[in-house]
Every structure is written in C-alpha cells, then in structure tokens.
Amino acid sequence: MSGSVKVADVVRIPVRPQGERPYDVVLGDGALGGLAEIVTGRTRAVLIHPVALRAVAARIVADLRAQADLEVHAVEVPDGEPAKRLAVAGECWDVLGRLGLTRDDVIIGLGGGTVTDLAGFVAASWLRGVDVVQVPTTVLGMVDAAVGGKTGIDVDAGKNLVGAFHQPLTVLCDLAMLATLPAVEVRAGLAEVVKTGFIADGAILDLLEDDPTGLAHLPELIERSIRVKADVVSGDPREAGRREVLNYGHTLGHAIEKVEHFSWRHGEAISVGMVFAAELSRLAVGLDETTVGRHRRLLTSIGLPVSYDADRWPALLDAMRVDKKSRGRRLRFIGLTARGETTIVDDPESSLLTAAYRSVAR
Ligand SMILES: NC(=O)c1ccc[n+]([C@@H]2O[C@H](COP(=O)([O-])OP(=O)(O)OC[C@H]3O[C@@H](n4cnc5c(N)ncnc54)[C@H](O)[C@@H]3O)[C@@H](O)[C@H]2O)c1
Ligand SMILES: O=C(O)C(=O)C[C@@H](O)[C@H](O)[C@H](O)COP(=O)(O)O
Ligand SMILES: [Zn+2]
C-alpha cells in the first residue's frame, strides 16, 4: 500500500443512530486510503486482524506509522469464528493494558465479521468504551457486521451471547480488499444480502437472480444492503423494535451454528434459517408459496445450503431458547407476510415449528 494509496472513488452512506454519534460508511475502491486522516491526532492505534490478513495488516501498520505519526500495534487473532472467544478478547485486553491504551486512542478492526465483532467488543469494553474504526474485508462484513454497532463474542451457551452496542467512528469498505476473498466466503456473505432483499429491498433479489454468483453486480449489491442496514440501525440502534428485522433467518441459523460447534459459516447457517423462517411464515402468517419457493431457488442457485439434519431438531429447539428475541418462555421469530413485509411470529405453536422444520429437514 505504501506509495500506492489511491485517490478514493467512494460513496458515503450516512448512519445516524438516534441519540448516538453519527458516522458514515465509506464504500468504494480506495476507501482504506482515508484511514490515516481518521486516526491522525491520536497517540496510539491498535489494529486487530486475522491470520489471513497478516500481510495486509503489516502494510497498513507501516503506512499509518509513516503518514499519521502515531504508535501503531497489530494484534493477530485466529481466522473465522474462533476469534470470537473470551480468551481472544482477553489477549486483546492484555495487549491494550501493556500499551496503556487511553480513551483518546483508537482500535481498528480489519477483517471479516468475526474480527469486526471482536474488535468492536474489545473497544466497547476497554475503559468502558474507546473509539473503533471498522475496516471490513469480506462481503458479509461490509454489508452487515461492521455497520450498526452490534459487537460481541460467542460463549458455550450460544452465539453472540456476550456483547455490547458500540457504534464505530467510521466504517471503511474498500472493495479492493475483496480481491483475495475465497468464493465460498463471497457466497456466505451473499446470504445476508439475500436477507436484505427479502426483508426490504427487492431489487437485490432481481440482481442476484440475474447473476447468482453476485459478481456481476457486487458493488451495487453491497451498496444497497448497506443502505438498508444504515436506515434500520439509524431508527433503532439498540434493537428496541424495528432492528429485529435484521435477525430474519437467525433464530434457527444461530442454533445451527451452536449445534455445529461454530464450524459452519454464519451465512450458510442463516441460509437454512431463512428457508425455515419462510416456511414458518407460510404456516403462521400466510406467506405465499411462490415467495417461499423463491427463497429455496435463489439460495440454492447461489450455492448455499437450504436443509439440515432431521434428527437435530430437539437440540436446535433447545438452542433457540437463548435467542435474544425470546421473552420468558416465548420463542419469537421474524416472519414475512409478503416480500418486504416483516412481522413478529410470537410464540408459535410447537406443531407449526415442527412442520416448518420438517420442510427443511433432510
Ligand atoms: N455485528 C453484526 O451486526 C453482524 C452481522 C452479521 C454477521 N455477524 C458476524 O460475522 C461473522 C461472520 O463474518 P464473515 O462471514 O465475514 O466471516 P469471517 O470473519 O470468519 O471471515 C471469513 C474468512 O475469510 C478470511 N478473510 C477475511 N477477509 C479476507 C480477505 N479479504 N481475503 C482473504 N481472506 C479473508 C477470514 O480470516 C476468515 O477465515 C459471524 O460471527 C457473525 O455472527 C455480525
Ligand atoms: O445488526 C443486527 O441487528 C443483526 O441482527 C444482523 C445480523 O445479521 C447479525 O448476524 C447479528 O450479529 C445477529 O445478532 P444477534 O443479536 O442475534 O446476536
Ligand atoms: Zn447475520
């Protein structure tokens, strides 16, 4: 990156979370070129990154040291979901302690959703809150995880059960970062893009049906998805209501991740979860069969899973009880009455849940 920082060709998408500091998502080729200016004036920056991005992280550290005149330290964490463990957060806190990171220093999260969730949580908890700049490097991180301030880690009891709302200072989505992303990770990210299409922006579904690899329309798909997320989060930053729609497909999806000991990709798990949610919506709130079929067809054409083991239902049901949308003994799901029309399916009869699961079971 040294000597080759491009003049950014970017769009800025505003996030205006009610009652919290406003920020932008900067999206485009060269967006990362704005990082030095953002952190200039701080004394220390700590860059948290996964193993896979070691070389990129080293270039960013060198650039920041040269351009922004501050102490920069890198912390390498495991690739994938193992980054979101208490022990890894603890290692990050140890480093921050050794460096003496203060409230006017900054943490940078460079990586996929696992790293932006971890870095956000470390920033939210260190000194009860320091600034974090998110630099997502996966499709999923750009369209969803890095935007909106949901941060957290997994514990044995389940997915994302420990965390905090902590909005970033800014989010830099540099499309050039995606050049090295494996195809299987692009597909996993498209699951959240599909989610956004079903809950809000139908043009997304048309674009993906035109090219299920997502590649032909990737910048537009990413921008549209970010705009939906930015809008939802701006109106309900702490998930008091409407933000729950972003959890479409996640009640079963997170349960699959737990039952699989976090070995499935998040996007793959919520792909199955969305088909389940669509089937439950058909049974509970009258979603039409065509829209349910559209879920299966589109997700399959992208190369995402749409079924899961029949005999795991009791374990999944158990895991779903700790979902954050649950209230007391009531399970709550995000449902659809039509494409783009969301509703809450509150405490559905167990016969409906079983029937919906039967239609995704293999
Ligand atoms: N906070 C939120 O609002 C939110 C939203 C959606 C998902 N999430 C979380 O995001 C996580 C999933 O994120 P993900 O799908 O990005 O997975 P990930 O972070 O595990 O990244 C996928 C893999 O790609 C590697 N990688 C990342 N960028 C790369 C690049 N540019 N080139 C090559 N390899 C690269 C990573 O090291 C990892 O091995 C889950 O933990 C999920 O719960 C959070
Ligand atoms: O931003 C949100 O709100 C979401 O629910 C986005 C989801 O895609 C994401 O996976 C999120 O981490 C799930 O949050 P959780 O509260 O169900 O743990
Ligand atoms: Zn998700």
From TrEMBL:
Residues holding Zn(2+): E192, H250, H266
Major localisation: cytoplasm
Keyword Cytoplasm tagged: yes
Transmembrane segments: none
Pathway(s) where this gene product acts: Metabolic intermediate biosynthesis; chorismate biosynthesis; chorismate from D-erythrose 4-phosphate and phosphoenolpyruvate: step 2/7
Residues engaged in binding NAD(+): D79, G80, E81, P82, A83, K84, T137, T138, K150, K159
Function: Catalyzes the conversion of 3-deoxy-D-arabino-heptulosonate 7-phosphate (DAHP) to dehydroquinate (DHQ).
Protein's name in the database: 3-dehydroquinate synthase
